[in-house]
Write a structure and sequence with these properties.
This protein is mainly α. It is about 90% helix and about 0% strand. The longest helix has about 120 residues. The termini are far apart. The model has no long low-confidence stretch (mean pLDDT about 80).
Amino acid sequence: MKTILLFSILFCAIAVPAMGALTDADLDKIRLIVQEEIKSEIAPLITDINKLKTNDAIRQTELKNLSKNIDDKFESVEKNFDRQNSIIIACIGIPLAVLAIGATIWGILASKRSTKDRTLEQQIEVLTQEIETLKQQRTVQP
């Protein structure tokens, strides 16, 4: 029990609150140290920002040049597409025009033939009727 009492007194003595309150002079020293560290850390950041500004201007001019080059490339591609479209239209349109003209001529000729065929059929019918009437007259008058 004596040991427990001794240890508890020892621990209480160790745990006695320390008089560690900061004075105004200590706070001023801390502020000065922090300000110096902030200044030393900010100086490289400012130089980095200035470098970025100059790099940004360079990048902007490079981007302008790049966009100009891309626009030129797109214009050339568009011209190629226009040429290809013209070639495709010619390759499809010319044969279709030839087919349309041929079909029209064939239709006109076919309609002329059909009118000729109709007149010939009518003449054949008239002749067959005349032949039938002549046969009937012959059989009636032998």
